[in-house]
Amino acid sequence: MNLYSLTLIAFSALTIFIFSSCSEDEMANIEINNDNYYINYIIKAPGPYGRFSNWTATTPDGTYSNNGYQTSSWNQSYGPVKKGFKCEVQIGHYQGGTPTIEIHVSKNQEPYALKATETDESAEYVIDF
Q1: 101-115 confidence digits (pLDDT tens)
Q2: Element holding 62 (H helix, E strand)
Q3: How far apart are CA 106 and CA 113, in angstroms?
Q4: Which of 4, 112, 113, 123 has the most CB atoms around its CB within 10 Å?
Q5: Is the pTM of this model over 0.90?
């Protein structure tokens, strides 16, 4: 026998041993999740004079932040991320009324669905579907 055959036999035996040592309940609890999720953040200030600035949002690459720029609305999409990702938005400053923050999430190629909406300085949602 050559080295390749011995390696293949050893790997096969180890695989059989590992899976045979798991109970049926343990096997049922193993979840493989290959889903990709996409986030769309929307912030809207109320009325014609509402403005906000200094906001942050979580992204797959870390935190997006915008400081000093005042606007009445902002929206941006990010992804892909995995199940369990914590979507967060925080607003540092606003005037003319409290902005509305929306967090929309899309699973794979499905349409976006509204998962969180807050009229406040922050909103968050953990992807769990």
Answers
A1: 999 999 999 999 999
A2: strand 62-66
A3: 6
A4: 123
A5: no
